[in-house]
Each structure stands twice: as C-alpha cells, then as structure tokens.
From TrEMBL:
One of its GO terms (biological process) is fatty acid beta-oxidation. This is Enoyl-CoA hydratase/isomerase/3-hydroxyacyl-CoA dehydrogenase. It comes from Sinorhizobium americanum. It catalyses: a (3S)-3-hydroxyacyl-CoA + NAD(+) = a 3-oxoacyl-CoA + NADH + H(+). Pathway: Lipid metabolism; fatty acid beta-oxidation. Its main location: other. GO terms for molecular function: (3S)-3-hydroxyacyl-CoA dehydrogenase (NAD+) activity; 3-hydroxybutyryl-CoA epimerase activity; delta(3)-delta(2)-enoyl-CoA isomerase activity; enoyl-CoA hydratase activity; NAD+ binding. The keyword Oxidoreductase applies. The keyword rRNA processing does not apply.
Length: 686
C-alpha cells in the first residue's frame, strides 16, 4: 500500500511508502487526496500527521513523469486540499523534503522535523520552477529574501537553520512519528495560525527586486529557470495568492517542456546511473577506513584534502623532508583557503590538517586500506612507487594510480597482486572537481572496482567508468577539441574569435584561454611521449609556440600576450605570425560563432561515438558527465552527446561531412551514422 492510515487516538498518521524516495507519482497524489477526503469526513480524527516510510520524506514530484502527459490529480490541487482541510495537517520530516515534497509540507499547517533533515526547492537545478505553490507560499512563511535565495539557487536548508528561519515549527530529537503525534495533540487546544494562502507577503525594501535580478542573472549566466523563479516570487509579493499561483503554474509548465529542462533532467538521471555500473550490482565494496596518498604536489595535495573532507585519516608519502614540507604546505593552503572563504571554520581546517600524517617511510602504510599514487607522470617513476607499495601494504589493500595519460596495465606490470589495482583519474583541483574517471585493468576484480565507486561516493564525486586508451574518455576528447581549435586558426579564425564563440556556447573559457591558464608545456610533454610511441599528434601551432617558449600565462605569453600581473588575454602579433606561417594547408573561410562551435563540438561527438563503439565508455550519458564535471561543458546543454541528439544527429553527420570535404574534420564514424539512423545513442533517459 502506497498510502497507509493509522489512528493514534484522535490523531491520524498518514504514511507515504513509495520507495526509493517517496516521489509524488500519480498513485501517491491520488492516495493522499483520498486520504484527505476520508479524514475530513471521519469525526474521530482531530489532526493529521503526514510522514514517510524509508530513508526520506517526499523528495519531490516524480521527475520520470515529466516527459509524459500530466495525469490527475494535479499536485497544486492536492496541496490546496491539504491546506484547506477541515483539520490541521502536520508534516513530519526526515531525510529531505524537496520540491513538491516541501510544497506538500508548506500546504500543511505545521512542519516538524528531525535535526538531520533538510528542506528545499531545488527545481531550478532541473531547469524548472516549483509548480505547486512553492514560490507563492514560501515568501509568506520565510519572507521574500529567504524565499528568493532558496528558489533561485535551489540550495536546501538544514532543519536547524530552517527552524531558526521559521520554516520548521519544532525539532524532534527522538522518534519522529511519536514526537509529531505529541506535537499534533499539543495544538488541538490552541487557535490555529492562518494557512499560508491566507497570509500576506511582507514588502521588501525599495530596490530589492532590481538588486536580486542583478545577482540572480549574474549567477545563472544563461540558465533560464533562476530568473523565472525570481519572477514567480516577485509576482507572489505583488499580486494576490490565486493570481500568483496561476503565474507560477504557467511558468512551470512552459519550462517543463524546454530544452534546458530536458538537458538537466538527462544529467540528473545520468549522474545517478553512473554511480552504479550494471555489472557491479549486488557486490559489496571493501571497507575504507584509512587512505594514503603518494606525492604531495598539486594533485596529491588535492586528493589528500578530498580524503580528509570525507573524514578519512590520511598518510602522505613524499621522498624527502623538503618534499614533505612542500606537500603539507600545499594541503594547508587548501584548508586555509577554505577557512578564509568561510566554507569551513578555522577549527575544522586545523582538524583536517592534523588528520594527515606525512612521512617518507613506506613502512607506515602497513595497515592502510586504500592508497592513491599521484607522483610525476612517468612510467618508471610510477612503477617504482608501486613496487615499494607492493612490498609495504597489506595484500588486501587497494592500490590506485592517478594517471591521466599512462597505461594503467603497464604501471601495474610489477605488482604482485594486480587484481587489487585500478586507475583513478582525478581532475585538478582534486578537492573541488566532481569528476572521477575509474579505470579498471584486465586484472582488477569486480570487488575492487566496486570499492573505487564506493570511494567516489565517500568523496562526493561523480564516478565514470572508463576503459584504457590514450587519455581515457575526457582527455581523448580534449585532444580532438584542441586539434579542431587549431584547424580553425589554420582556416582563417583567430584565437579571440574561437574563444568568444565557445564562451557564447556556454563554456566558462575558450580552448585557447584554457590552455594559457593550464600551461602549454604539459600537453607538449604528452605529445612528445606519444610521438616517441609512434603516435601522430596534430598541434602544429602549439608546437611552434612551445618552441619559442610561449607556455601560457606562466611565461607571460601563450596563445595571447599578458601584461605582468594581469591575466587579461591580449591578441598577440607573434602568435598571428606563427599562424600565418602555418596556414597554408587549409583554405581560408569566414567563420561565425555558430560555425566555430559546430567545428569544435561535432568532432567531439564523433570521437564520443568512437569511444562508445570501442567500449571506452559504457553509456553516452557517461561521456556527457565527463565533459560537464571535468571540463566545464554547460550542464544546461546536457553534455555533448545529449546536445548533439537534441540538435539532430542527421544534422551533426551532415556538418561533419561538409567539414571533412574541406579537410577540417574527420567524416562521421559508423557509430554516429548508426545512431543517426536509429534516432539517438542508446540512453539512460526515462
Ligand atoms: C518537483 O518537485 C516539481 C514540483 O515543484 C512541481 C510539480 C508539479 N523523481 O539521488 P539518489 C530516484 S521537481 C523520480 O541516488 P540519495 C533516483 O533516480 C523534483 N526519481 O538517492 C534514484 O533512482 P535509481 C524536485 C527520483 O539517497 C533513486 O531515486 N526534487 C527522484 O543519494 C535514489 O536517488 C528533487 O530534485 C525524483 N524526484 O539522495 C530531488 N529523486 O535507484 C531529487 C530521486 O533507479 N532527488 N529519484 O537510480 C534528490 O536530490 C536525491 O534523490 C535525494 C536522495 C537527496 C532525495
């Protein structure tokens, strides 16, 4: 039974039981509506407690229903029915009351919660606004400022803060339902507060809306929903309840069918699917109680910080006292920075640092569960580290390499128990970037792979399983992006025009600005190694720039010139001369923003299709997650594979053919053509 009613004296307890997260599917809406009617008609009932079974209160509307025609009863009608019920409803919240779930709670006359609960309206993260009165009732309860903050960012509020803000009437420390029933009894003799629909909205100070619009639009960049959510709260403050509800509903329905909402829904389901590769279903990961990081450079320090953030004690291994000092200083800088920005307190920062033991003695790793190597990207150096780890760690310890380009199979060659080894590719800064490419070798056991995914969850990362190839998923596509960017220069575009076009598309930075920031020398080093292996690398202009020591911002110039102490990229005559010197092979043409974006994006998708064909990625949506969480691809575009599908794979294939005729790209690969025929890459979308 999805909805259960139980009587505790004059209090009825209505329990929603719709695993996994009690989403408001049609059955739940119907069941709650019938319960509301039945309880109104039952003279023995004086108040109702609404609670949920399982791990959470109602986590929202059923997102899986959004692509389908709406089915009655509608959620706004259900919320109104509860709000207008003859007897008061008390929402008893544990876990998360989110979206439609919080809207149902706002329809209740009271809300009580356990301290670990959270409440929020995260709809903007799905490209929509609340559609069941959230933007209209919340300002009546919390004030306009808090409501704007919550609906435009989508950030949930912990129960303690929500209690202080007046969103929660009482915190229940012991058993929730018992406490909620006592609370419901305690209100029976008191006059009831007005339902939220009958309360006014306090007028905000002069200039509030203009300032809010500036803030929200700067933060949202090109996402539509946050500004629309702001408009809904403003309408709630400036008009009557019914008109504001109608405006919110219309906005919700329009956005629900928008390309941005479809893209964000795709990412929502993709993120959840990525955490569970089908072949790991039912496997129990190994326990991770402690971790070690080998190498305290930028990457190693970031990984150590991420492990500490997850509460694990960490041993940091470096080769000498000087390197130990530098490694600890790198980690300290991360936590001090977090404390300075107010993300953590100074006490927490100090506790995180003291949780790291630094040593150069591998014997200290004798009892560590999980070890991550993050030393210099050189096969011999890494192999040497693993030989020492194999001698020092327990035989059931897991050993991981954080390599970006080397072959994990070759790194593992000298390990005595290769089945406990895997690749974990973090992205810099490792304590911030959400992506973690998880790369099993042929020998890695399913249990060890499952533990890699479990570690990702502990670190709050998005894990994507990747097969072994040059650059795994992300850097393999990055190589194509960079080659395309150079082809554009060889055929008449400028670095400024290419970067501007990609920013206009929604990337935080264009490909040349990004290379100048990261440094051109790293990719040059990798090209050298690849060429030594006999691989071809197309980077004629970048090669020339490195030859004249233009490595990017760090050397005062790369693709652009920089004034000392100023990161503003300025077009460079020296670079223009290098481009002119190389630009013989390709015909020149005029490029506009859309054509530039196509020339970069569709070859990325073509490579994505090859990555699917050779099994380097399990799903197209995994490729989307890699580009979103590792490379700043705009989330609201859904990732390159989703974006290509949304634009039409026939059009993508046709553009690739046209570019190929001009020598500007590879023609569409078989997998892309097959997907175009079938109408899409196989998807996890519901
Ligand atoms: C909304 O409410 C609109 C209204 O304003 C208006 C309507 C008229 N629907 O995240 P997990 C599935 S918009 C369907 O791994 P956790 C999820 O796919 C909604 N399915 O668990 C996964 O399935 P599977 C506003 C959902 O414990 C499983 O549940 N609400 C929904 O780490 C477990 O999910 C939100 O945006 C859903 N709403 O985290 C809240 N939510 O096992 C979205 C989850 O098959 N949800 N699933 O892969 C969350 O933030 C997290 O799920 C939550 C639990 C924090 C609740």
């Amino acid at each position: 039974m999805t909805i259960k009613i139980e009587h505790r004296g004059e209090i009825a307890v209505v329990t929603v039981d719709n695993p996994p997260v009690n989403a408001l599917s049609q059955v739940v809406r119907q069941g709650l509506l019938e319960a509301a009617k039945a309880l109104d008609a039952d003279p023995s009932v004086k108040a109702i407690v609404l609670t949920c079974a399982g791990r959470t209160f109602i986590a929202g509307a059923d997102v899986g229903e959004f692509g389908k025609p709406p089915m009655p009863p509608q959620l706004p009608d259900l919320v109104s029915r509860i709000e207008r019920a003859a007897k008061p409803w008390v929402a008893a919240i544990h876990g998360s009351a989110l979206g439609g779930g919080f809207e149902v709670a706002l329809g209740c006359r009271f809300r009580v919660a356990v301290p670990s609960a959270s409440v929020g309206l995260p709809e903007v993260r799905l490209g929509i606004v609340p559609g069941a009165g959230g933007t209209v009732r919340l300002p009546r309860l919390a004030g306009v400022e808090s409501a704007v903050d919550m609906v435009t960012t989508g950030t949930p509020l912990g129960a303690r803060k929500a209690h202080v803000a007046g969103l929660i009437d009482s915190l229940i420390e012991d058993d929730l339902v018992t406490g909620a029933v006592s609370f419901a009894r305690s209100i029976l003799d008191r006059p009831l507060p007005d339902a939220l629909c009958d309360r006014p909205v306090a007028v905000p100070p002069v200039g509030f809306w203009e300032a809010a619009e500036r803030t929200v639009s700067a933060r949202a960049k090109r996402e539509e929903a946050p500004l629309k959510a702001l408009a809904c709260v403003r309408r709630a403050a400036e008009t009557d309840f019914a008109a504001a509800i109608a405006f919110e509903r219309e906005t919700f329905l329009t956005l629900r069918g928008s390309p941005q909402a479809a893209a964000l829904r795709h990412v929502f389901f993709a993120e959840r699917a990525a955490t569970r590769p089908p072949e790991l279903a039912g496997l129990t990961p190994c326990m991770i109680r402690s971790a070690a990081v080998i190498g305290g450079g930028t990457m190693g320090a970031g990984i150590a910080a991420a492990l500490r953030d997850a509460g694990l004690p960490v041993i940091l291994v470096e080769r000498d006292d000087g390197a130990i000092e530098r490694g600890l200083a790198n980690v300290r800088a991360i936590f001090d920075g977090a404390a300075k920005r107010g993300r953590i307190s100074a006490d927490v920062a100090a506790e995180r640092i003291t949780g790291i033991t630094a040593t150069r003695d591998y014997a200290a790793l004798a009892d560590v569960d999980f070890t991550i190597e993050a030393v210099f990207e050189d096969l011999d150096v890494k192999r040497d580290v693993f030989a020492r780890l194999a001698d020092s760690c327990r035989e059931d310890a897991i050993l991981a390499t954080n390599t970006s380009y080397l072959d994990p199979e070759r790194i593992a060659e000298r390990i005595r128990w290769p089945e406990r080894f895997l690749g974990l590719h973090f992205f810099s800064p490792a304590h911030v970037m959400k992506l973690l490419e998880i790369v099993p070798t042929k020998a890695t056991t399913p249990e060890v792979l499952a533990t890699g995914f479990s570690l990702a969850r502990m670190l709050n990362k998005i894990p994507v399983r990747a097969g072994i190839c040059d650059g795994f998923i992300g850097n393999r596509i990055l190589k194509i992006t960079r080659a395309q960017a150079e082809r554009l220069l060889l055929s008449g575009a400028t670095p400024t025009a290419v970067d501007a076009a990609m920013r206009a598309f929604g990337l935080p930075m264009g490909p040349f600005e990004a290379q100048d920031l990261g440094g051109l020398d790293i990719a040059a080093f990798q090209r050298k190694a690849a060429r030594a292996r006999g691989e071809a690398c197309f980077a004629p202009i970048a090669d020339r720039l490195c030859a004249i020591e233009r490595y990017g911002q760090k050397s005062g110039g790369g693709w652009y010139d920089y004034e000392p102490g100023d990161r503003t990229p300025r077009p460079s005559e020296a670079v223009a001369a290098v481009i002119a010197g190389e630009a013989k092979a390709l015909p020149r043409r005029d490029w506009n923003e859309n054509a530039i974006a196509d020339c970069i994006l569709w070859p990325m998708v073509n490579e994505g299709a090859r990555i699917l064909a050779d099994g380097t990625a399990l799903r197209p949506s995994d490729i989307d997650l890699v580009k979103i969480h590792g490379y700043g691809f705009p989330r609201w575009r859904g990732g390159p594979m989703h974006h290509a599908e949304a634009q039409g794979l026939d059009t993508v294939a046709e553009t690739l053919r046209a570019l190929a005729r001009e020598g500007l790209a590879e023609p569409p690969c078989d997998r892309l053509l097959e997907a175009a025929r079938r109408g899409g890459f196989s998807e996890v979308r519901r």
